[in-house]
Amino acid sequence: MTEQTLRTGRTLTATRTRLAAAAATAAVVLLTACSSPAPSESSSAAPQGTASQSTAATASSSAVPTATAAPSAETAVKELVAGFPATVLPLMKGAQIQTSSIQHAEPVSTAALTATVTAPSADVLSYYTKAFTDQGFKAQPGDAVDGVPLKTFVRADGAEILTVSVIQTASTATFTLGATLLPASFK
């Protein structure tokens, strides 16, 4: 194995662990927030040091540092935030958006989507495995982290990373999509 392959493997393992924790936290926050519905609104926010930012930093750790503008983040509740890469991260049929967000930075940007659907977690993972592999992403080994169903996909020599994690409650699956993408994927 080359040093680059080993570094990519360690990066993916660390990223999957952080994203699983973030997905579990997002699901708890989401389930708590669902008890008191909020109106649909979009907002801009300063970076908060999220798992997605850590993913972007980890994914670009081998890139040459350059001076760039400060990252910008946007979120939306019950809708897709403007500029969301819906082609790369499609919404599963019948799913209801709970939150979406994007953060533009260089050399990669991040996007996240949390949604619910009346379907088993296996169906959610199957849908997104097909959607992502059809776009040239390669599924990585493993289907869960700490008991949470989670699948990771990469392309562009590991510069682009997608994850899907699912928490099942009765007949409802709450899933989170996380993405670290190159700027071209946001168009």
Automatic annotation (TrEMBL):
**Disordered: annotated segments:** 38-62
Signal peptide coordinates: 1-26
Keyword Signal among record annotations = yes
Q: Which UniProt keywords apply?
A: Signal
The organism's superkingdom is given as Bacteria
The name this protein goes by in its record: Lipoprotein LpqN
Q: What is the lineage of its organism?
A: Bacteria, Bacillati, Actinomycetota, Actinomycetes, Micrococcales
